[in-house]
Design brief:
Elements (H helix, E strand, L loop, with lengths): L4 H16 L7 H25 L5 E7 L2 E5 L3 H24 L6 H20 L3 H20 L4 H30 L20 H15 L10 H5 L5 H10 L1 H17 L1 H4 L3 H23 L3 H21 L3 H32 L10 H4 L1 H15 L5 H16 L3 H27 L18 H19 L1 H11 L3
Antiparallel strand pairs: 1-2
Length: 487
């Protein structure tokens, strides 16, 4: 394919997102139709590049000999691009119904499109400097999405997200500066670009890597850097689905993998105190997030705590620093993205159609919204890790990778098993209430509640089928992931 194709995948949504600001704010149909068309065309362009594009490096801007905006899609980048290109248009379609009666829809659709541009840039970045630039652009384009309701809670959540992100970016910047000062500014390379003797010794290099790990892990909601994610649940459901399933949190995990596997390198980090610290933090976050999800009664916040736990599944797999751990982490990126976006779509449909926000208000609602809660129940089983769904496949391979690694990884394996039990509690509690209400439940209050419209249902049903298909064909998908990352 021509070399301009990959930059086009970024420039097209960038230009379209900027142009959306010129459309009338009251013309919802025009705004929604334009955004859906732009994201669908962008996804088609991205998928064409994934299937037929090359791996040639494309330099956009060179600021200095060691600083250039470089695009290059290796197997890891193509994998993440595929997740983004599949889920983004479905989220826009869902928003076509959810956002109809909301305010500030012009800015919503414009920033939603710009966020897609930023996420593609993160996935297609050819070096750490480029990834960092698009990573910052992703922060700037998603802050207004959290702010969209313009309530006091939304303002507070957006401010907290921005402050956490800026703090994390500062730590990541320090890790990048260490590489640049050491002359390691080249393209991402499997095994790392930091070769030979390291400045200040291995201990200093590992410390700077840990700064970067913590910095990028802000978006991956690692404890104690997770609070912004819970507060961000006040945003409209298409935004929370975007934050929790597709763009922001997965970009954080993706950046950690790039920093670890393709910059500093596992040869430096494996079997060190830095790896142990990262593994223990991830294992603790898995249990911590799952435990707080059990306590939480607000439907969307419960799912937010679940995201905190499951993002650390991914970090744990990546921090094993083995081929099996990396492959399992990538499988869980895709599996969790599909599962969690369906869960949030279902929670958003309940809020949109009934106004109910608490788990205790779900009694009997499954009878009025059967398709919605059929999808939610399947997502609950998948998140628990039951076969033959995709969550089982990714969690199985995570446990297998932990068992293969041994040592401190056994602590993480125990955390994953405990989290599976807690997941069954907090997910099935909601599903049970929806299908089998308590005897004293006021079912008459559900008389006006009905199923969501097709724009909400179609993405839910398609992705629910995707959970099943990806579970049934889990082994071929694993082989494809291994081949993509050169394993």
């Amino acid at each position: 394919m021509p070399s301009f194709w990959l930059p086009l995948c970024i420039l097209f949504p960038l230009a379209a997102g900027a142009a959306l600001f010129a459309l009338p704010d009251r013309s919802f149909r025009l705004l929604f139709g334009t955004t859906l068309a732009v994201t669908t065309v962008t996804s088609a362009l991205v998928w064409a590049w994934i299937l037929w594009g090359g791996e040639a490096a494309i330099a956009l801007i060179r600021f200095a000999p060691e600083l250039e905006l470089l695009l290059k899609t290796d197997g890891l980048g193509r994998f993440f691009l595929g997740v983004l290109a599949t889920l983004w248009p479905l989220t826009v379609l869902y928003a076509g119904s959810y956002m109809r009666d909301q305010q500030h829809v012009r800015s919503f659709f414009a920033f939603f499109t710009l966020a897609y541009c930023a996420a593609i840039g993160v996935a297609a970045a050819g070096n750490l400097f480029t990834l960092y630039c698009f990573y910052e652009f992703l922060t700037l384009s998603t802050v207004p999405l959290i702010l969209q309701p313009m309530t006091s809670a939304a303002r507070k959540a957006a401010r907290e997200y921005f402050l956490y992100s800026i703090g994390g970016s500062a730590f990541a910047f320090v890790a990048m500066l260490y590489l640049l000062a050491h002359g390691a500014s080249g393209p991402f390379t499997p095994g790392g670009i930091l070769r030979g003797e390291v400045f200040g010794g291995e201990g200093i290099a590992r410390l700077f890597w840990l700064f970067g790990f913590l910095g990028f892990s802000v978006k991956a909601a690692l404890f104690p850097l997770h609070r912004w994610l819970i507060k961000a649940s006040v945003a409209p459901t298409p935004v929370t689905a975007l934050l929790h399933a597709v763009a922001v949190v997965k970009s954080g995990a993706f950046a950690v993998i790039r920093l670890t596997q393709y910059c500093y390198g596992t040869e430096l980090l494996a079997d060190s105190w830095a790896q142990t610290a990262a593994l223990l933090l991830a294992a603790f976050t898995v249990v911590y997030g799952s435990s707080l999800a059990v306590r939480e009664t607000h439907f969307k916040r419960r799912l937010a705590y679940s995201t905190v736990a499951n993002l650390s599944y991914i970090l744990f797999g990546a921090m094993l620093m083995t081929p099996a751990g990396l492959a399992a982490a990538l499988l869980h990126i895709a599996a969790h993205a599909c599962i969690k976006i369906v869960s949030f779509f279902c929670a958003g449909a309940v809020l949109h159609e009934s106004g109910r926000e608490s788990v205790f208000e779900l009694d009997g609602i499954g009878r009025r919204m059967p398709v919605t809660f059929a999808c939610f129940t399947v997502s609950a089983f998948a998140l628990m890790g039951l076969p033959p769904l995709n969550g089982f496949v990714s969690k199985w391979y995570l446990l297998a990778a932990a068992a293969e690694s041994g040592g401190v990884a056994w602590i993480g394996a125990g955390a994953l098993l405990l989290s599976a039990l807690l997941t069954a509690i907090y997910m099935l509690t909601a599903a049970r209430r929806a299908w089998f209400p308590d005897r004293d439940a006021n079912l008459a209050s559900l008389a006006a509640v009905h199923e969501a419209d097709w724009k909400m249902l179609v993405p839910m049903v398609l992705l629910t089928l995707g959970m099943l298909l990806c579970g049934v064909f889990g082994e071929p998908i694993l082989r494809a992931v291994q081949a993509a990352i050169g394993l």
